[in-house]
């Protein structure tokens, strides 16, 4: 691993004194070790443990009795039995002992679980016997996710997950007081952005936080009181104040529970996309899955009518599964918000269990805009992305790859503008140095578009900004055409007609377009798809040719990005075009990769 | 491919294509642009995908052919033995045809092997490593030096007996899959050090 030695240059902009550059809002991000929410062990598994113990005892009490007293007492009440034997004291003592042990274990695990946020990294250490220490370097952060599952939400706790690249390499801070979580995320992102705001003293920071968010401070009070309790610092509370704070706590919880997923002082208040619940429901109902369900509803009654009763028995569990799938999809898509913040795109969703992820700039590796066949009459699209650093083990996070569950074309364009700022895709000229570039090898008939043919070959290799060639207006329709066009001379370099042998339906639409910083791959006619990959995130470029492609003079191009639901590949394109595209992509990946400063997205651009 | 096939270029491969010297890779990222152009004019309809500068491909050691052939033979013998066992011991007639088919497949594989080995090549260009392999199914991969996360050297028993090693490049994308087999050990180590140094000097984020 060459990673270690790379640390030097990357950390250069961060001066050694951690106290000097601090504009943090919470005391949690001050570089000292902190503990998590005191209810953490309970939330993490304690409740389940208690429930399981209860079930086990309820079900096995007679067996247990038999085991411990070696007397067959079938039908007798265990409490009676204990009372009869005069062992009440011992029994109570045993229960107390077990309880104490469990509580001690909980307390210890909470006590030993601590985290700190320094200007360089987020660090978590945990474990009683086997200590683990996990550190996420801030310049490698791929996303910060705040999860609020139902139960912790009731307790006013939230899980903050710092995503770093790698399988399952995320650093979880579970659970934190809900009031701190958003502020802590802002702090982490601010530190990670490398933004050099003037040194702000701690007192100042607290003062600004106080004026900015009154209720948040109340929450902080409420949360720190039990937090400090075990350390014996909370003795000063009078009963009256306690009651008042409990009242405040309850209202605060209620407010939190009802508040939208975007807190107003951190993001523009408006989500750029609003999904009406009706559209969400319809989009879930109108899907390939529903076709299968309908088929099931037709097949099973027929089967039952023909005395195949086993079908009924397999049908009922399937029905439960189907219902839970729909409900899950629905609750996850509900209250969907997406908005741009200074520290990246924030995507929030969820009704009962909410999730709210911030993806810093330059962390989106590939984007796919797709439209299943059934959605076409409605003009709906969905957007999925590849990012590094997903914990792919639990299904709950897997759905986070969907950044737009369902939306129309203008929604898609707004979301893409957020995900790829300055990619030359926007209708308004985002940057003077971001003209759309297009390849013209001249030979494929589809590329014979007048505007495109004007681009001299090879001029495209000097990619971002350097080549103001072929200023094809980066009209909004580049995306729109990518989504809906049936092919032809539409700004995309498409596959030649002989590709029909391999892509009988979609060859007209199979093509690509290049902007200064992004490549757009278009494919599919039954299920339409547009894939966008920023050059700066391309890991490697591949070109391939099979025997049939060789006969037809075709080739394929692949862009290798980090693992995810999006695969950026162009199955067929003219051979010469594919060679040209390969070289351009390779050069573009090198150039953009070298000039990319998104690991510290807040630093001034002089780093270029 | 056709031009470079005859070049069993184990002749000091590291000297002629030092990535920083313009001599080895003349204006590498831009250079291939005119060539496909010319080729396209000549044969617009069909043709082989050809990328990179055809004169600076480094081929793998000819000894690597032995590794491949031995591997194919072992695999072939195991499969054929299985089919033969079913045919003779199990007294199943169809297994004879499976056996014949298997033998045919492995014979073809053996015949094609030399060309397949010769098709594996790499070149160090100004900013990226270009890798190719395959004749029937051709594959080219360009890995920018800055994207390399680590470089692995592995040696199988047969390769070790022949003094060969296998170099594997790992990027953040699993699909990259660039493995250069059949490099003499010292060359592999030298290449690894060179690539790590290059990756260091051009390190990009993820």
Automatic annotation (TrEMBL), chain A:
The chain crosses the membrane at residues 42-60, 87-108, 280-303, 309-327. Keywords: Membrane, Transmembrane, Transmembrane helix. InterPro entries: YdbS-like_PH. It comes from the Bacteria. Signal peptide: none annotated. Residues 218-237 are annotated as: Disordered. This is YdbS-like PH domain-containing protein. It comes from Microterricola pindariensis.
């Amino acid at each position: 691993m060459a990673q270690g030695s790379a640390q030097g240059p990357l950390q250069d902009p961060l001066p050694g004194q951690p106290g000097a550059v601090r504009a943090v809002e919470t005391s949690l991000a001050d570089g000292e070790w902190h503990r998590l929410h005191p209810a953490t062990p309970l939330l993490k598994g304690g409740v389940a443990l208690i429930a399981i113990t209860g079930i086990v005892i309820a079900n096995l009490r007679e067996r247990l009795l038999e085991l411990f007293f070696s007397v067959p007492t079938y039908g007798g009440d265990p409490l009676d039995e204990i009372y009869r034997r005069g062992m009440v004291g011992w029994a109570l003592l045993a229960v107390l002992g077990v309880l104490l042990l469990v509580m001690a274990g909980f307390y210890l695990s909470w006590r030993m679980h601590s985290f700190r946020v320094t200007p360089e990294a987020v660090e978590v250490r945990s474990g009683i016997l086997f200590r683990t220490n996990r550190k996420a370097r801030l310049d490698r952060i791929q996303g910060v996710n705040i999860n609020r599952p139902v139960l912790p939400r009731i307790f006013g706790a939230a899980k903050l997950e710092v995503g770093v690249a790698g399988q399952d390499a995320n650093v979880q801070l579970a659970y934190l007081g809900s009031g701190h979580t958003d502020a802590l995320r802002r702090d982490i992102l601010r530190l990670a952005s490398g933004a050099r705001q003037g040194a702000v003293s701690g007192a100042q920071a607290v003062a600004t936080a106080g004026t900015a968010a009154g209720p948040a401070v109340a929450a902080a009070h409420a949360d720190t009181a039990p937090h400090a309790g075990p350390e014996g610092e909370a003795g000063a509370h009078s009963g009256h104040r306690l009651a008042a704070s409990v009242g405040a706590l309850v209202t605060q919880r209620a407010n939190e529970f009802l508040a939208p997923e975007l807190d107003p002082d951190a993001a523009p208040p408006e989500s750029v996309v609003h999904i009406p619940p009706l559209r969400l429901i319809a989009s879930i109902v109108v899907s390939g899955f529903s076709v299968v369900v309908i088929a099931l509803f037709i097949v099973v009654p027929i089967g039952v009518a023909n005395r195949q009763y086993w079908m009924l028995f397999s049908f009922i569990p399937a029905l439960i599964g189907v219902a839970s799938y729909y409900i899950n999809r629905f609750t996850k898509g509900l209250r969907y918000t997406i908005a741009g913040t200074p520290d990246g795109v924030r995507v929030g969703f969820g009704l009962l269990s909410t999730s709210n992820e911030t993806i810093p700039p330059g962390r989106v590796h590939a984007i796919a805009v797709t439209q299943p066949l059934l959605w076409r009459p409605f003009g709906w699209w969905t957007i999925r992305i590849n990012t590094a650093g997903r914990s792919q083990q639990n299904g709950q996070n897997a759905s986070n790859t969907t950044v737009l569950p369902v939306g129309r074309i203008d929604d898609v364009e707004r979301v893409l503008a957020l995900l790829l700022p300055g990619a030359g895709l926007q209708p308004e000229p985002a940057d003077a140095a971001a003209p759309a570039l297009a390849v013209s090898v001249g030979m494929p008939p589809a590329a014979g578009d007048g505007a495109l043919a004007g681009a001299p070959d090879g001029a495209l290799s000097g990619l971002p900004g350097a080549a103001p060639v072929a200023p094809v207006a980066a009209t909004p329709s580049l995306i729109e055409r990518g989504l809906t066009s049936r092919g032809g001379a539409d700004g995309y370099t498409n596959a030649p007609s002989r590709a029909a042998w391999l892509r009988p339906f979609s060859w007209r639409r199979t093509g690509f377009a290049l902007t200064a910083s992004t490549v757009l791959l278009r494919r599919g006619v039954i299920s339409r798809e547009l894939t966008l990959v920023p050059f700066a995130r391309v890991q490697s470029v591949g070109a391939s040719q099979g025997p049939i492609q060789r006969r037809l003079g075709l080739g394929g191009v692949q862009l290798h990005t980090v693992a995810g639901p999006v695969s950026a590949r162009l199955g067929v394109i003219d051979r010469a075009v594919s060679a040209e595209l390969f070289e351009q992509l390779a050069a573009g990946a090198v150039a953009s990769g070298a000039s990319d400063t998104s690991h510290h997205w807040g630093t001034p651009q002089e780093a270029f | 491919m056709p031009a470079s096939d005859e070049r069993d270029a184990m002749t000091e491969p590291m000297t002629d294509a030092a990535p920083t010297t313009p001599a080895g890779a003349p204006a590498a990222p831009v250079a291939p642009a005119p060539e496909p152009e010319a080729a396209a004019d000549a044969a617009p309809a069909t043709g082989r995908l050809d990328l990179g500068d055809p004169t600076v491909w480094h081929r793998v050691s000819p000894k690597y052919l032995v590794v491949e052939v031995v591997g194919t033979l072992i695999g072939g013998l195991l499969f054929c033995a299985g089919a033969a066992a079913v045919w003779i011991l199990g007294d199943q007639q169809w297994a004879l045809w499976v056996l014949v088919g298997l033998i045919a497949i492995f014979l073809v594989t053996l015949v094609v092997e030399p060309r397949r080995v010769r098709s594996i090549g790499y070149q160090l260009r100004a900013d990226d490593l270009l890798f190719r392999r395959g004749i029937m199914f051709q594959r080219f991969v360009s890995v920018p030096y800055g994207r390399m996360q680590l470089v692995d050297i592995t040696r199988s028993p047969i390769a070790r007996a022949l003094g060969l090693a296998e170099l594997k490049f790992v990027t953040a994308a699993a699909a990259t899959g660039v493995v250069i087999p059949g490099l003499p050990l010292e060359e592999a180590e030298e290449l690894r050090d060179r690539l790590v140094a290059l990756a260091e000097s051009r390190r990009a984020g993820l």
